[in-house]
């Protein structure tokens, strides 16, 4: 699968925190009519528990596992990418495609349940858990 963006094109990741959430939501409201397709990505502290019981299919088990963990754990980040029907991204006045990364402060590595390897991978990917507090 080829990239929609030209090789030299960069994407601006718009970091959303408590202090700029209103401004970023206002920007999203401005672009959503022209870019109505949404891709979503979430970051949770991994799979930390498995449900008990009998499941008819592996899909039922996988769904139950995911739901059990999502219900129990705290969201770390939510990524949103908006596009038009051709896959073009909004530029948000920057000349580059832009996407949003919402940072949630409820997760605390000192008090919440998580899988160590997952948290380490998120740290290596640039998530600053001290800043998320």
Descriptive account of the structure:
The protein contains 3 helices and 4 strands; from the N terminus they run βαβαββα. The termini are far apart. The chain has helices spanning 21-31, 58-72, 116-124, and strands at 11-16, 37-43, 77-83, 97-103. The protein has 133 residues and is α+β, with helices and mostly antiparallel strands. Helices cover 26% and strands 20% of the residues. The protein has one domain (11-124): 2-Layer Sandwich (Nucleotidyltransferase, domain 5), CATH 3.30.420. The mean pLDDT is 88. The longest helix is centred in the middle third of the chain and has 15 residues, at 58-72. It has a 4-stranded mixed β-sheet with strand order 1-4-3-2, covered by helices on one side. Component of the CCR4-NOT complex, at least composed of CRR4 and CAF1 proteins. Its EC number is 3.1.13.4.
**Cα-to-Cα separation, first versus last residue:** 38 Å
CATH superfamily: Ribonuclease H-like superfamily/Ribonuclease H
Class in CATH?
A: Alpha Beta
Low-pLDDT stretches are: none
Shape type:
globular
Total number of β-strand segments? 4
CATH architecture: 2-Layer Sandwich
Helical content stands at 25-40%
Features:
four-stranded mixed β-sheet, Nucleotidyltransferase, domain 5, 133 residues, alpha+beta
Tell me the layout of helices and strands.
Elements lengths: L10 E6 L4 H11 L5 E7 L14 H15 L4 E7 L13 E7 L12 H9 L9
Parallel strand pairs: 1-4
Antiparallel strand pairs: 2-3, 3-4
GO cellular component, one term: CCR4-NOT complex
Catalytic activity: Exonucleolytic cleavage of poly(A) to 5'-AMP
Pfam families: CAF1
